[in-house]
Amino acid sequence: MPVLQDGERALGRHTCFDIKYRGDWMRRPIESTEVAWLVRLLVKLSDIINDRLNLAEQVRTSCHKLSDDTGGSSKFEELNVAELLRSSKDFAVNLSLLDLAKEIRAFLLSCWGALCDQLRQHGWRVNLRFLAQKPVVVLILVVFSWLVRKV
């Protein structure tokens, strides 16, 4: 590691006290520990996801301001299994696989809506840029090659 004046150690082209990026964290300069083309691709993909979830405009507003939409999830016909079990006179209620699939779908949609509402409420955004770091890329390639060999 090269030694600079006054005994400071250099980290690549920066000293350890000299890294002060004050902007959008996804728009920071590409570092030497990242794959450049993958950074560009993942930042575009993150922008698309944030636009679809309406998280992009939350950066400009206060992070404590609640979002305007009240629902967050799409309207769907919901089957309530608890009410069905209470109202049934038979001891064993026959539920079809279609009813079970509808119940699981309703549960997953309500979880997705709650997650999106929480992201909007706290002003958070999706950032996939961490996947472009070289150690992560190597790990993904090793796992992928291991899975290909298994099949």
Automatic annotation (TrEMBL):
Keywords: Membrane, Transmembrane, Transmembrane helix
Keyword Transmembrane: yes
TM helices/strands, residue ranges: 130-148
Lineage top rank: taxon: Eukaryota
InterPro entries: Sphingomy_SMPD4
One example GO MF annotation: sphingomyelin phosphodiesterase D activity
PANTHER family according to UniProt: ALTERED INHERITANCE OF MITOCHONDRIA PROTEIN 24, MITOCHONDRIAL, SPHINGOMYELIN PHOSPHODIESTERASE
Protein's name according to its UniProt entry: Uncharacterized protein
